[in-house]
Specification:
Chain A is an alpha+beta fold. Chain A contains 16 helices and ten strands. Chain B is mostly helical. Chain B is built from 13 helices and no strands. Chain B is globular and about 60 Å long. The chains are: A alpha+beta, B mainly alpha. Chains A and B meet through strand 1, helix 5, helix 6 and helix 8 of A and helix 6, helix 10 and helix 13 of B.
Chain lengths: 389, 307
Amino acid sequence: MQKEKTVSSFTIPIGPQHPALKEPGHFLITVDGEIVTKTVVRLGYAHRGIERALEERNYVQCMYLLERICGICSHIHATAYCHAVEQLAGVEVPPRAQAIRLLVAELERIHSHFLWLGVAAHEAGFDTLFMYSWRDRETVMDLLENMTGNRVNYSANLLGGVKFDVDDALEGEILKGLEFLEERTHHYLDVVKTDIMFLQRTSGIGVMTRRQAEVLGAVGPTARASGVARDIRVEAPYGAYVEHPVNIILEQDGDLRARFIVRLRELFESYRLIREVLETLPAGELVGRVPRRIKASETVSRVEAPRGELFYFVKSNGSDKPERVKVRTPTICNMLSVIKLAVGHQLADIPMILTGIDPCFSCNDRSVQIRSGDNLQVLTWEQLRQFGA
Amino acid sequence: MDILRSFFAILIFPGGLCLLFVSLIYEWVDRKLLAQLQNRIGPRWFQPFADVIKLLAKEEVVPEGVDAGLFVGLPILALAGGLTAALYVPLFGLVPIYNFPGDLIVTLYLLSLLTLCMGLAGSNTLDRFSLVGATRTLTQLFSYEAPFLLALLGPAILTGSWQISDILAYTNSHWLLLTQPLGFLIAIIGLMGKLELPPFDAPEAETEIVAGALTEYSGRGLALFRLGKGVELLVGLTLIAAFYLGGVTNPVFFLLKTLLLLLIMVGVQSLMTRLRIDQTVGLWWRYGVLAVFVQWLGIIVLKGVLL
């Protein structure tokens, strides 16, 4: 006991079970007093073998499983997958369906960013902001529920189109909801920009320079807060984003404050997009016809999830089941920045820095450890499948 | 008869059981108001009682590697400190049960006992969250204790006595809030710092170090620490109300004034982001102490000029 106490630096385990983490992840944080000197991250606690399971299901069934990769951005996963499969099958998606996909995706972004605002405020110990932002988030949750019947896994996509239409009544509801949310977003933006106590916890904390963001491969709002213009909706517009271009939101500071501001400002962009889409909603079919079997080929699909770039690789083999589906979620891209940025900060800032990337552990838990120490471990295709990926 | 009366005063009313009961009610008011301000529903009125009773009924797990005597003894000492301090303050608007010259200092030290016990309890275990929590608790003790002490000594300087009943004799007819606003401010924020209420809850910041120093505590020990905090809240509120808000000469005034103070504290709790421990220390030593000294200087100079 005595020895333990004379050691001046020790490691603090955050996770796999810890109040700061809503999902399991493990961070070994070495501290010297309050200052962090080293961070080690261990992921994989929520690995579900989804990619392996996909190979046992046909293209339609796969979508339901993929929607359940993430409980927050379920629609964008299905969209990425649909884009890939439609590309493989050479199916043209009706413009109305494309527009509705965009609509749901942006509503989802609003819900995700509000959720993040609450979580981040809670990590900072500002529970009032947490409670209020989640109360307001209910507005967009209700809209999504009215539209699709579900609050979380909307299941709005079909291969070749969408399931749900938008009528005038719903349009009115959405516009009304947006009006309220827009007013609230102005208020929250004001809070994160001017609240002195809050700024003490965010301003200058976890600063990631533009160069660092590029080298560490940060994506999404995390990268955009460091001035890196990286947004798939802008770089490689997909679906209805071709007709409705997105204005990229950039901040230059790279600290937590910038990440708050980027996400909140993105909400305004989402409101604008949704209004634009509702105004110019093209008439027509909702679903295009997709064949059951898809000829052998492969493709990639990139979309902008609320957290950043979401990458899908789909390989077909001529049957009604995919040969291989590979998913890379934005959290895994941003995780490196947490390990890098944490060093030199106080222990109290770690939960904030971690939350700053908006982590989603169960989303990213699918990577296979190829390299361990010095010995390079190469897995064959069969072994990789066995492993479950 | 005298002995019987003393026992009654210490164990039943106004100290002891009655004090515990009222302190739990105050805890509920605190939680309910905070919940309402945060757009939540908040607990039912008996929730703090249910919590304490349930905790008391649970098994107390003594973790490996701790000094069992200390582990069990510290919660008792902490609660005893709070309950003893209550004997020297005008609880419920009544005359303090005991008094002697210098009892103000003793009371303030007894109030610090809780924090000290929590710090020791944290460093007694091998748990890493507890150790960090204990370090922070003790760091916070050194930062806010001085300003809080100095803030409550302001009225003492004015009256020239360190006996609570002497000070009360003066403050019952004077609202010191008007003449010593800085002291009042420091005292109320100091009380929040003592109780580790948000935004001064870095020592038990759940998103960083789980429950801080008390992470390893369960059952009886945790219940006693919580009761101790409740008692300290009530005693602290009583002292501030009595010194700065024109005294608490009857139960109605007592209720009104302490609840008003509680309302202010809840407001501060709901409006602010948790401070990091270095920010807490900086706040106290940079501004808190300075403000108190300015206040003192004012008192001493004015006293010299006027008297």
